[in-house]
Amino acid sequence: MAEENQQGHGPRESMEYDVVIVGGGPAGLSAAIRLKQLAAEKGAEVGVCVLEKGSEIGAHILSGAVMDPRALNELMPDWKEQGAPLNVPVTEDKFLFLSETGAKSVPNWALPDNFKNHGNYVISLANVTRW
Ligand SMILES: Cc1cc2nc3c(=O)[nH]c(=O)nc-3n(C[C@H](O)[C@H](O)[C@H](O)COP(=O)(O)OP(=O)(O)OC[C@H]3O[C@@H](n4cnc5c(N)ncnc54)[C@H](O)[C@@H]3O)c2cc1C
């Protein structure tokens, strides 16, 4: 819809949405996808807009290397069939204390659970968000 802007400098395009989400990272994208899923389940239409400051989704995603797929399993159980870029399952964990001359490894049984990555994937979070 075209409107006069506040300075009266002629028409400015605007679009209406039901929900606007700021930030196209994993959180914003998951919220947008879930809203659309819930609307589809109810046979309703909901207009969702994701605003991302990067030039494209993923452009400002800096990190994320090892991913626990639990949340993705809940959001999109068929992510494998849909071609999500989670292609490298973790096969081994090594936790090392480095010194000037060498390294001492900590046995895996002594590590807290958050250092155990079996069932997780080595990913590029930028590529996962782009997908
Ligand atoms: C160095 C580092 C390493 C990490 N390694 C791992 C790891 O190995 N495994 C793991 O699970 N997690 C890791 N994390 C954590 C993981 O990256 C975050 O938990 C996850 O990215 C958070 O997602 P998010 O959507 O909340 O935010 P973000 O990923 O930060 O996404 C926010 C998005 O919003 C956009 N944005 C911000 N402000 C605005 C605005 N005003 N207008 C428009 N767009 C905006 C940004 O450009 C960005 O795209 C790591 C984090 C860091 C910093």
The overall pLDDT, averaged over residues, is 92
Q: Cα-atom Rg, whole angstroms?
A: 21 Å
Uncertain spans, ≥5 residues at pLDDT below 50? Answer: none
Total count of domains: 2
Question: What portion of the residues fall into strands of 2 or more residues?
Answer: 15-25%
H/E element string?
EEEHEEHEEEEH
Q: What is the molecular shape?
A: elongated
Helices, by number, come to 3
**Spatial strand sequence of the major β-sheet:** 5-9-6
Number of strands: 9
Describe the protein's architecture and organization.
This protein has 131 residues and is α+β, with helices and mostly antiparallel strands. The chain contains three helices and nine strands. The longest helix is centred in the first third of the chain and has 16 residues, at 26-41. A hairpin with a 4-residue loop joins strand 7 and strand 8. The strands form four sheets. The chain has a three-stranded antiparallel β-sheet, with no helix packed on it. Strands 1-2 form a two-stranded antiparallel sheet. It has two domains: 1-60, no CATH class; 64-131, no CATH class. The mean pLDDT is 92. Residues 22-28, 51-54, 60-61, 63-67, 125 line the site of flavin-adenine dinucleotide.
